[in-house]
Specification:
Distance between the termini: 110 Å
Helix content: 55-70%
Radius of gyration: 33 Å
Structural class: alpha+beta
Shape: elongated
Oligomer: single chain
CATH class of the domain at 125-283: Alpha Beta
CATH superfamily of the domain at 125-283: ABC-type transport auxiliary lipoprotein component
Length: about 600
């Protein structure tokens, strides 16, 4: 009897087939259950190791032993005439057929769950239906509306890499997935700042979903090592905590965009179904992973306003000169650091590659705003908002533009919309507060500030806003305790206290003039001192001095740093020389070309009067 025939007689081949099928099913179960149970990534590796180790042991057992009615015996101790290997073989036949049916069923099910996948470097197009809305909030009160079933929050993916410095990568991929999902019509997605407030929290996803006002949560983890990356993602229904979908992606880094697309496609398939128009979820891809890695690092640094941000993003553009998002991020970095000419030049490069890049349009509009080129700035804001009207960061910049040019009512509407979309976007608070104050709603402004100060107690700008609002309330009593509670720079408190007690205190006013004239290198400290000085100077009735300083600031090339449209600045607006400031700022020409605000008007004799 030859060796192959003996393998068949002893059912070794059938045991091998059954073992392979069972092993495959165990690995599929591991891939599904490991992320759902938050098990470490090495669990699946351990499973594979022990399954491989067990295969030769199973083959040896099938060869050397036989199952008999009296139990397991060594094959050599069994009389061939008494052997029941044929009976065992038939049982194994049925077992193999059953296992194959289970495996085939799982394969068909998995194939139906996974829609079409994208080839590397191509953009997946998701069908969409006309008339659906992509936003979570259409009105200022939308943040309080009941959640829709087609809503999802992407929690920050956990960095499972051994190097904690890779945190920027997991955060960056999370943001990229959010950006991809936002492009799916009919899907409501909270902004980055809202979801990143839950970073590092191990709370119940159902409670987190309720707080964010969404019906679904996407969470996961990222492990990167060398050129390999593993992304685990799972979609959870908030109401009951059940998992609707989960997947583990083991890819090379140069396929990272494909993973982002596949996640977006899977979410679209589960939540929005078949729609009609095409949407590209992950545009502007790069094949250069060094450029992409530097881009993610730069985005993280940009949010923290780190001084090395521009250098890192510049390296990203050098690694891939055709990667438009890197150029756009670099333009924003230049703009927020005061390098407006470089910001405009860089933004225009990004727009040459991608005319619809919202970040580049926002950076260009903001740089032009700083240079007081109001009409040009507004045109780029209009373009950006036509592309993405639900970007809270864009709405923040646009709201600030509107407040600077005196369109306070429109500024308030933009701020309210942005706040409804993203109630954790701290920079938006300033414009929102000023809008409420200018609209004669100081109580709401104070309530908003109090709400934000729970998390940002040391924010000096908000405490200055409180001071500004209290100054317009004639019945408010200022005392030492009030100033003691203000979280403004400690070196400003004696002067502020003195002027609140006596607005004509000459020694304190002399200090204010010093704040005006000093060239303090720390831009934030300079700004808060300068702003406090303006506010208290106006209260002291020294509006001529303030107009002179404001005009000299503009003539030196600085942008407008202050808004003038709250009640606290009414004495400044009524100064006869205020029109001279408006002319220097370019606002009169802007209003002539567009429309005049409620605050100011040109009389028949051409004289500009404000109230």
């Amino acid at each position: 009897m030859n060796f192959f025939a003996e393998l068949k007689r002893r059912n070794v081949i059938k045991v091998a087939v059954a073992y392979i099928i069972v092993g495959w099913l165990i690995m599929q179960a591991g891939d599904t259950l490991a992320p759902a149970l938050h098990l470490p990534d090495w669990i699946n590796s351990a499973l594979a190791f022990f399954l491989i180790l067990g295969f030769p042991l199973a083959m040896f057992f099938a060869w050397a032993f036989e199952i008999t009615p009296d139990g397991i015996k060594k094959e050599k101790d069994i009389d061939r005439s008494q052997s029941i290997t044929q009976v065992t073989g038939r049982k194994l036949d049925f077992t193999v057929i059953g296992l194959m049916a289970i495996a085939l069923t799982y394969f068909i099910w998995e194939s139906r769950i996974k829609d079409d996948t994208a080839s590397p470097g191509s953009a997946i197009v998701i069908p969409a239906k006309a008339g659906t809305s992509t936003t979570q909030a259409e009105t200022p009160n939308a943040v309080e509306t009941p959640k829709t079933q087609n809503s999802i929050a992407v929690l920050p993916f956990i960095n499972m890499s051994s190097d904690p410095e890779q945190e920027y990568f997991s955060d960056g991929i999370t943001e990229e997935i959010i950006n991809a999902l936002v492009k799916i019509p009919g899907l409501s997605v909270p902004a980055r700042t809202s979801v990143f407030g839950f970073k590092g929290q191990q709370g119940d996803v159902r409670k987190i979903g309720e707080q964010l006002g969404v019906a679904h949560i996407l969470e996961g983890s990222i492990r990167s090592q060398g050129n390999q990356v593993r992304i685990t993602a799972q979609l959870i229904k908030v109401d009951d905590g059940f998992h609707l979908w989960s997947e583990t992606f083991d890819r090379q880094l140069d396929n990272i965009f494909v993973v982002q697309e596949e996640i977006a496609v899977a979410i679209a398939g589960v939540l929005t179904g078949e729609l009609g128009l095409g949407v590209v979820t992950v545009p502007n891809q790069t094949r250069n992973m060094e450029a992409y890695d530097l881009y993610l690092q730069g985005r993280t640094l940009l949010r923290k306003r780190k001084p090395e941000t521009a250098d890192v993003l510049l390296k990203a553009t050098q690694a891939d000169p055709d990667f438009a998002p890197a150029w756009a991020a670099l333009a924003i970095a230049y703009q927020v650091s005061g390098r407006q000419e470089q910001a405009m030049e860089t933004a225009e490069k990004a727009l040459q590659m991608d005319p619809d890049n919202v970040d580049a349009l926002d950076a260009l509009a903001s740089a032009l705003r700083t240079q007081r080129r109001w009409l040009e700035s507004e045109s780029y804001f209009d373009r950006a908002l036509a592309i993405d009207p639900q970007s809270s960061e864009l709405l923040e910049d646009y709201s600030e533009f509107l407040m600077l040019v005196g369109r306070a009512d429109e500024s308030l509407k933009a701020a309210e919309t942005g706040w409804a979309l993203d109630p954790n976007l701290f920079p938006l608070v300033w414009a929102y507060t000023e809008g409420l104050t200018a609209a004669g709603r100081p109580t709401e402004a104070i309530e908003l500030i109090d709400q934000v100060l729970i998390a940002r107690e040391s924010a000096p700008w908000l405490w200055q806003a409180i001071l500004s609002i209290r100054l317009m309330q004639e019945d408010f009593v200022f005392d030492a305790d009030f100033v003691a509670d203000l979280k403004i720079p400690a070196d400003t408190k004696p002067t502020v206290t003195a002027l609140l007690m006596d607005s004509t205190n000459e020694e304190a006013i002399s200090v204010l003039k010093t704040w005006f004239s000093e060239n303090i290198k720390d831009q934030e400290t300079y700004s808060i001192h300068y702003s406090l000085a303006r506010l208290l100077m106006v209260r002291a009735g020294l509006t001529d001095y303030v107009v002179d300083v404001d005009i000299s600031q503009l003539e030196s090339g600085r942008g407008m740093e202050e808004w003038h449209w709250t009640p606290a600045y009414q004495p400044l607006r009524r100064n006869p020389r205020y029109a001279e400031f408006l002319q220097t700022a370019g606002l009169i020409d802007y209003w002539d070309a567009t429309k005049w605000p409620d605050w100011c008007n040109r009389q028949l004799d051409g004289k500009v009067v404000c109230k």
